[in-house]
Design brief:
With 420 residues, the chain is an alpha/beta fold. The chain has twelve helices and 19 strands. Strands 1, 12, 13, 14, 15, 16, 17, 18 and 19 form a nine-stranded mixed sheet that branches. It has an eight-stranded parallel β-barrel with strand order 2-3-4-5-6-9-10-11, surrounded by five helices.
Length: 420
């Protein structure tokens, strides 16, 4: 798959003249097209809704954009709940999927009327004490063991901290029914960044079948099934994007074989995609400021792992483009590094690239999800600006770059009294 950029070197220089590197920039048109394709793929389901995973890109401008496309908000913390309400989300526009949840977060979710997804059976009594049990609620299911598509292991839900066992799920539904719950949802997440077309259909079969069993055994009304996230993107150039239309059709077939066959329809399908929605439509733009030649050849840029943690944390691959040198031969091997006092602060290791020198502009692809949002301030580094590239080519700043004043703000720096 060819990695493209919705701007060229001249446009990048124009942007940099106003907003110095490094910065993350997001392609509005690409995000909207992805949202529309997803909604179309599941338009066969009455009640389908995508709840965008705020954790992937917690910016209210992006959230507002997706709200315009009909998406809800998947929140997992108090602050994310506040973000959701700031752009106009309310009640069942919000799905609150959390784990190891503090009392004030449950209380906030109940105050907002959000759909609550319980991660553990012990959270039933905790929620009853901190906010109260609503009439419509969801529980998260973890089937344990390994997750297969065909004969291939795709994930290990048994090693994950999330969700309830099958036995706990039945106990939870029975208990919640006695506590006044009238409508139920089931949520499950079995693997991350899946680009296999069969992931959602396989997950759907697992969840739809247990939904049928719960309905038959306990007489509960299953209003929705939340397939969560997990659909991924191809970070490398030899991968292909997920055919979401094909995925939606695969889930439809399983729905007919299980939910429809059991006479349970309509059951709404929800998703909580983040990476799939915005990942390919974000770019970290950074300038080359140094080169170094010792035992290896290094390209030093003005971004660092504080701007994009995935390569340092996971060894994750992100494609790089040197603007203006797209057609030059990749005949130089570099490590592309930031300035942190950590040797894992590398965006690429032994990467074949065109000759690169100070003054060049490098675009790091696929940073629209879990990029800026995982940023931090180690070494006193400051988080970058976020920009939105509009369809007409204009650029809007949707988050300013941090300043030293931001870094010191929580230290009451102005008083200058640090005696202990």
């Amino acid at each position: 798959m060819e990695k493209t950029i919705p701007f060229n070197l001249a446009k990048a220089k124009e942007i940099i003249a106003e907003y110095p590197t490094p910065f993350h920039i997001y392609d509005e048109e690409g995000i909207r097209k992805t949202a529309r394709a997803l909604n179309d793929a599941f338009s066969w389901n009455q009640g389908y809704r995508e709840y965008f995973a705020i954790k992937a890109l917690p910016n209210p401008f992006i959230m507002s954009l997706l709200r315009q496309e009909g998406c809800g908000a998947d929140c997992s913390s108090y602050t994310e709940l506040e973000l959701a309400t700031s752009v106009g989300y309310k009640t069942e526009d919000i799905m609150f999927s959390s784990n190891d949840t503090p009392a004030n977060e449950f209380e906030k979710a109940r105050e907002l009327g959000a759909l609550i997804n319980l991660d553990d059976i012990t959270h039933i009594d905790f929620l009853a004490k901190h906010g109260g049990i609503p009439e419509k609620i969801c529980c998260r299911y973890n089937p344990g063991g390994d997750f297969f598509i065909g004969n291939t292991i795709m994930g290990n839900p048994g090693d994950a901290k999330y969700g309830m066992t099958k036995r706990q799920l039945f106990e939870a539904f029975a208990k919640l029914k006695t506590m006044g719950v009238k409508e139920f949802g089931i949520h499950s997440f079995l693997a991350s960044n899946m680009t296999e077309q069969g992931y959602y259909p396989s997950l759907a079969r697992t969840v739809f079948e247990i939904a049928v069993d719960l309905h038959r055994e306990l007489g509960v009304k299953i209003s929705f099934v939340n397939l969560s996230g997990g659909i991924g993107i191809p970070y490398t150039t030899d991968g292909e994007p997920v055919d979401i239309k094909r995925v939606g059709e695969g889930v439809r077939r399983v729905y007919e074989e299980t939910i429809v066959a059991a006479g349970m329809e309509p059951v709404a399908i929800y998703t909580e995609l983040g990476r799939y929605m915005t990942g390919p439509h974000g770019y970290l733009v950074t300038s080359v400021i140094h080169e170094k030649h010792i035992y290896k050849d290094y390209v030093g840029v003005d971004a660092c792992a504080c701007n994009l943690m995935r390569p340092a944390m996971y060894g994750a691959y992100h494609h790089l483009t040197v603007l203006g040198k797209e057609n030059k031969p990749c005949d130089h091997k570099y490590d592309v590094v930031g300035s942190l006092c950590e040797n894992n602060d590398k965006f690429a290791v032994d990467r074949m690239m065109p000759f690169t020198e100070p003054g060049d502009i490098i675009v790091i692809h696929d940073t629209g999800a879990h990029g800026f949002s995982m940023g931090y301030q180690y070494n006193g580094k400051l988080r970058s600006a976020e920009l939105l590239l509009r369809k007409d080519g204009s650029v809007k700043m949707i988050r300013r770059a941090e300043t030293p004043a931001d870094y010191f703000q929580t230290l009451d720096f102005a008083k200058g009294n640090y005696d202990v």
